[in-house]
Amino acid sequence: MDALNAIVLLSNFVLLPAVSYGSQLALGALGITLIYGILRFSHFAHGDVMAFATMAVILVTWWLQGMGVSIDPLPTALLALPFGIAITALLLLGTDRAVYRFYRKVRAAPIVVVMASLGVMFVLNGLVRLIIGPDDQHFADGARFLFTVREFREFTGLDEGIGLRVSQLITIVVTLVVVAALFWFLNRTRSGKSMRAFSDNEDLALLSGINPERVVTVTWLIVAVLVTVAGTLYGLDKSFKPFTYFQLLLPMFASAILGGLGNPLGAVAGAYVIALSEVGVTYAFRKFLQYLLPENLEPSGLAQLLSTDYKFAVSFVLLVLVLLFRPTGLFRGQSI
Amino acid sequence: MKKLLLTTALAGFAAGAAQAEDVPIGIVLGFTGPLETITPAMADAAELALAEANESGNFALGTLMPVRADSTCIDSGAAVAGAERLVTSDGVAGIIGADCSGVTGAILQNVARPNGMAMISPSATSPALSTAEDDGLFFRTSPSDARGGEIAAEVLRDHGVETVAITYTNNDYGAGLAESIRAAFEEQGGTVTLVASHEEDKGDYTAEVGALSSAGGEVLVVVGYVDGGGAGIIRSALDLGAFETFYLPDGMIGDSLTETFGDEIDGSYGALPGTDSPGASQFADLAAAADFDATSAYAGESYDAAALMILAMAAAGSTAPADYAEHIMSVANEPGEEIYPGQLGRALEIIAEGGEVDYVGATAVTLIGPGESAGSYREVVVEGGALETTQYR
Asked: Are strands B63-70 and B22-29 parallel, antiparallel or unpaired?
């Protein structure tokens, strides 16, 4: 019984939050890794594109709510997703046309394109604040919990409980679907194969008749889907605030680099590693150990590796370690 | 040239003669610097009290004359020089000020104590001023930040709480208040399991709440902002089933609290500065007539500071700080007839007849300990998704 309590406790406070946070990071990191692999630059505007996409979804959600459309108990935002993806796709293709295409044509050094994306980041940063403002926005509706901690405790009779939120379940399910669809697309379809070919060797791909502009367009479209879904899920699960989304840039990049830049599988794995270590390293394991250890061995302190103040340092430390010892990432991506 | 000198000297002499009738009162506030937006209303409020006493005709010691000096709020050197000028050149009988805790301490040590000058600050809230050496010359009409901690501890103990965990927003306000709550709660026999900080504007507070939950505690004390990380902590704690009851200090009590959480936090409680004294509305009427904003921060406290100084002078029958300083506590506290804003004339009359007054003023002043306001706090509880006031303390 004690072992069961310990597992339930850990699931509630570490595993479940880490898995849903990791899923949101994974979708973001996949976008970064695709852009790096195919367009060959680090997309610094990713966090703010995510904020823009989520803002589009929120605005459509409010419009739908105003019309009285609802898919209770699921959040209305899911209905608004396709609209948000379309708007984000237009934005991304627009910036590509206005900014990035020029640098591709002159074959600019990657660092120049990175700086251009930094500029795009600042513009989007301002645009989002101009349209929706810098404050918190709540747009989640429908049921909040599948079951709460208290319901779980009463049902199982355990001392500890797990609360499962609808948003967490949606996050995990949607991430599974999107990631599966992406891998199917990359591995099984003609467009996906041409994208991978383009990523592996640009010149060879051009020689074999692959249209580079088409590959670029498809990439941006996929990124639009990934980034909108990631941003919306994060907003549903937590809350939407432009500044928070900007701050997500670091863990997303850390995930992509950890897994190996340009490697989609690596991005997903990296995201879960980052999420699990951010939550796990700073968790106080006292209660967990109290359930498992005999009484005389119980820790008197909190059994916490790092104070939560250092939560964001965890991604940095992992990043440094990986770059030091395995510059190509855990899954053999491109080195940077 | 000779003639000019003579006239100037004569004019100076005449001015000096006129001053014998006047009682200059120094008003040292940060008219430039970070508080420059609220200090005009503070000075207006203090001068309003002086004018009220003059108009009543019951202040027998002369005509009260305000003399302003700039404290800058942040530059101790400039503040000390300004206060020094008031004492040596203007010959003030007392100082209302200063505003910020840092410059107030500097003026107290470098000007007030060496010259034996009394000071009443309307807005310095640092706990350090409670224990500073002041030779009985320093008072304030604002509560020390430490009072917030004592009030929190009292409310928690009254609810029968034995153990709490505390989380605070990582800045001076959060760290200071969290520390004073911890100290006061432990002094009253409670146990604090963990004091941990949280950052503002993070999307996710699972890790913070996880640590607090492991440490345990009946109630989570959330020293934060209702429109920021504090709300995130509560959201996360509810979702994870870590805590069900929260203690909410002033920064956490606002309309958006109940809008966000509704009845999910029923049974949580807290306290914030506030008073049910009728003095506040009477002061607002006076301020409206004098054309300044009564709700501006520390305006009421400034009026009260000036009023206390006037009443203490009247009670002592002297404008020498050494004589009237000891009377400041007694005119502010019971026993005596309660005095509200606009009744200074009446108070002076009572004092002249040898009676006692209990000055209540705009902010329900009661001076405690080393001469600082006890502050009045409004205790609230969340019931049915709405904030209900339970009592004032």
From this structure: parallel
Whether B358 contacts B229, CB under 8 Å: no
For domain B146-266, give the CATH superfamily.
Answer: Response regulator (3.40.50.2300)
Q: Do A287 and B202 touch (CB under 8 A)?
A: no
Q: B204 CB near a chain A CB, below 8 Å?
A: yes
**Nearest CA-CA distance, residue A12 and chain B, Å:** 7
Query: Same topology for domains B2-142+278-373 and B146-266, yes or no?
Result: yes
B196 touches chain A (CB under 8 A): yes
| Rounded CA separation A69/A146 (Å) | 22
Show the DSSP H helices in chain B as ranges: 2-19, 39-56, 76-85, 101-107, 113-115, 128-131, 145-158, 172-187, 206-215, 229-239, 255-261, 279-290, 299-316, 321-324, 327-332, 344-352
From chain B, the residues in CB contact with A13 under 8 A are 206, 209-210, 213-214, 240, 242
What ipTM does the predicted assembly reach?
0.78
Q: What does CATH list as the number for B2-142+278-373?
A: 3.40.50.2300
Q: What is the pLDDT along chain A (336 residues), one digit of tens a residue?
A: 788 888 898 888 889 989 999 999 999 999 999 999 998 899 999 999 999 999 999 999 999 999 988 887 889 999 999 999 999 999 999 999 999 999 999 989 989 999 999 999 999 999 999 999 888 888 888 888 888 888 888 888 888 888 898 999 999 999 999 999 999 999 999 999 999 898 888 888 889 889 989 999 999 999 999 999 999 999 998 888 888 899 889 889 999 999 888 888 899 999 999 999 888 888 888 888 888 888 777 777 777 788 777 877 888 888 888 889 888 888 876 654
Q: Which of B196, B201, B242 sits opposite A241 (nearest CB)?
A: B201
- Domain boundaries, given as residue ranges, for chain B: 2-142+278-373, 146-266
How far apart CA B83 and CA B69 sit, in angstroms, is 7
Question: A244 to chain B nearest CA, in Å?
Answer: 6
Q: Using CB atoms and an 8 Å cut-off, which of residues 235-274 of chain B contact chain A?
A: 235, 239-242, 260
Which of B204, B211, B239 is facing A284, going by the closest CB pair?
A: B211
CB atoms < 10 A from the CB of B381, how many? 18
Tell me the shortest Cα–Cα distance from B245 to chain A, in angstroms.
Answer: 14
CA dist A21 and B205 (Å) reads: 11
- How distant is the Cα of B256 from the closest Cα of chain A, in angstroms? 11
Using CA coordinates, name the residue in chain B closest to A8. B240
Structural domains in chain A, sorted by start? 2-325 (1.10.3470)
